[in-house]
Amino acid sequence: MTAKELSRRHFLKYTAMLSAAAAVTPGMLLGMTKGDIRLAGPNERVNLAGIGIGNRGGEIILELYRTGLVNIVALCDVDMGAPHTLKVLKEFPDVPRFQDFRKMFDKISNQIDAVTVGVPDFSHFPITMMAMGLGKHVYVEKPMARTFNEVELMMKAAKKYNKVVTQMGNQGHSEANYFQFKAWKEAGIIKDVTSITAHMNMGRRWHGWDVNIKAFPPAQTKPDSLDWDLWQMATTGHDYNKDFVNGQWRCWFDFGMGALGDWGAHILDTAHEFLDLGLPYEVRPKLVGHNDFFFPTSSTLAFKFPKRGNMPALDVNWYDGVNNLPPIPKGYGVSGLDPNIPPPSTGTMSPAKLNPGKIIYSKDLIFKGGSHNSTLTIIPEEKALAMAGSLPEVPKSPSNHFKNFLQACKGEEQTRSSFAVAGPLSQVFCLGVIAQRLNTKLKFDRKTKVITNNKTANALLIGPPPRKDWEQYYKV
Description:
Layout: H1 9-18, H2 26-29, E1 46-51, H3 56-66, E2 70-76, H4 86-91, E3 97-98, H5 101-108, E4 114-117, H6 124-133, E5 137-140, H7 148-160, E6 166-168, H8 176-186, E7 193-200, H9 228-232, H10 258-267, H11 269-274, E8 282-288, E9 298-305, E10 314-320, E11 357-362, E12 366-369, E13 377-379, H12 381-387, H13 401-409, H14 419-438, E14 442-445, E15 450-451, H15 455-460
Parallel strand pairs: 1-2, 1-4, 2-3, 4-5, 5-6, 7-10
Antiparallel strand pairs: 7-11, 8-9, 8-14, 9-10, 11-12, 12-13, 14-15
Helix pairs in contact: 6-7, 7-14, 10-14
C-alpha cells in the first residue's frame, strides 16, 4: 500500500472509530478476570512459552532458560519446519509445539505463566495483547510495536492489568549503560543536555535495492511448512515472497521499523528515560533514496523536544546510512563496538565507518557512548582524566535483562524496561518512521497525541485497519 493509498476515506474513518475504542479486552472475551494473574513463588520456576523461536526469538528463549529460573512449557512458531527454528526444537524435544499462538493459549493457557514474543515488529501487538488479557507476563522484543497506536494500546493494557509484568527486549537497559547514566544524572555530571547525536551507519539489508520500484515483489511459492496467512497476522494481505521473511521484513514500511526501530532502543534508551524526553513536538527528515515501499538508503531525522522542568529544550539527531556520518567533535577518539552485541541472523556484523553509538552535548561537557551495554566516556581525554576522581561510583547490575524479567515475574524485582518506560521510547521511533515514510516534517501535539500538520501522517499513527478476525486485539 502506497502513501497515497493510505489517505483514503475508509482509512481516515477507521482512525476516528478506533479513537472511541470499546472497553472490552481479549482476556475478558475469554472469561479471564484481573484476579487471575499469577506471580510465581520465590522458590518456583516460571513456566514460559516461547512465541517466535527462530533467529532472535530463539536466542531470547535460550537466554531466559540459562538463568535457571524457567521451565519451557511450550514452543510456538508459524514455521516449525524452517532451518532457523531447529536449534530451539532440538534443545527442547519433548516440549509441546504449536503453530498458532491462539490455539496454544486455548489448549494450555493454564500451564503458562509468561511468554516471550520474538517475532517481526508487526506481529508483536496481537500476541502481546492476547497474552496480557489472559494474565500472562510478557517479554517483547524491541521495538514494542510497529504503530504509535499499537504501542498506546499496549501501555493502556499494561496499566489495566497492572499485575502483569512487562519487559521490552533492549537488553542493555539492565547493564552498565543503564546504571552509569542513572548515577551520573543523579550526581549532576549529566545535566543541561541540549543535543544528542545518535548514529547507526552499518549496511542494511535494503541498501542497494531499486528505490524506483512501483510495486511489491511478485508472488513466489511459499515453503510447505509456513503458515503464510498467520505470518501476516493483522496486516493487509501480501503475496509470499522470500524478501518478506527471515529478517527481510525489517526492510518494509508495512512490516518493520528500519534501522531506527532496530537500533534506536539500544542507543537512545537511557537518555530518553533519565532525561525525561517523552515525545517530540516536531520531527524533520532529510532522506536519500526515499520511496513508498521500503526504508531510505540513508536518513537524518531531527527530533525536537521541549523544555522539561529545569532541563533545557533538546534536539535528538539520528543518522543512518553507510555514508551518512554525523559531525564528530574534537577529541572524539576511536569508535568502539560493544562485544556483547548479539550477531544478526546473517551471522556477522557489517563493518562500519563509525560504529553505532551516541554523542551527548551538554552546557559544560561532551559524552561519547556506544550502544547496548556500552558506558559513556567524557571527551576529550584530558577532561575525562581531570574529572576521574570526582565521578560517582556506579552500582553493579543485580540481574541481567532476562533475569530481571523473571525475578519480576516472581515478585522480587521491578522490570527496568516495562511498557511504561519503553512505550514512549517506541512511540518516538514510530513518529520517526512516519516522517521517513512520507518524507515530510511532522508537527506533533504532545498533549493530544495528534499530528497537526498532515492528515495522512496522523492516520498513520494508527495504520491500516486490521484484517477480519484480528479486530478484537485493538480494544482496551
